[in-house]
Amino acid sequence: MDVTYPRQRSVFSTPRSLYRMVSLAEAVTWTLLIIGMILKYVAGLGSLPVLIGGSIHGFVFLCFAGISVVVGVNQDWGLARIIVAVAMAIVPYATVPFDARLMRTGALDGPWHTEHGGGSRDDQWARALLRWFVRRPVLLAVVFFAVVIAIMAALLLIGPPGGW
User: Fold this and answer.
1) Which among 141, 100, 146, 114 has a CA at the least distance from the CA of 12?
2) 123 CB burial (10 A radius; 0-12, 13-18, 19+)
3) Mean pLDDT (10-residue bins), the chain, 164 residues
4) 95, 94, 132: which is closest to 112 by C-alpha?
5) Against a cut of 0.85, is the pTM above it?
6) Which of 58, 65, 80, 109 is most exposed, with minimal Cβ within 10 Å?
């Protein structure tokens, strides 16, 4: 007996699912950072909890910023909305209501754009580059994480926030 199982959808299958997952992860890492600060300043456990929570949060923040740009270009948000999306990650938990607003307004609806749609905006270099990368998702993931890791490494070399 041959049984066919439905294909599992990946979190990367739509801009909506990817953005929502990273938005939620960003909010969760705020909790880790806040717990780390409580453990440092209230429980007196030293700076290790903040180092761990802050490092995880910093990495996810950079991923969120990058995913906001990628999804924003795909969804044709415009520069102002992309900047607001990234700025929402600076305020604890603000990505959650912003994500809900994007859902209500349909700003996350639709597929990844892999082909030129015929509009003049599809001629822009950023959209053309994104289409090229979306057709090569493994390469996109490798390049994306390489850039995030390079930025994270540069920031760690500069030092932690407030450490200047």
Assistant:
1) 141
2) exposed
3) 55 89 95 95 90 93 97 95 96 94 96 88 89 93 96 88 56
4) 132
5) yes
6) 80
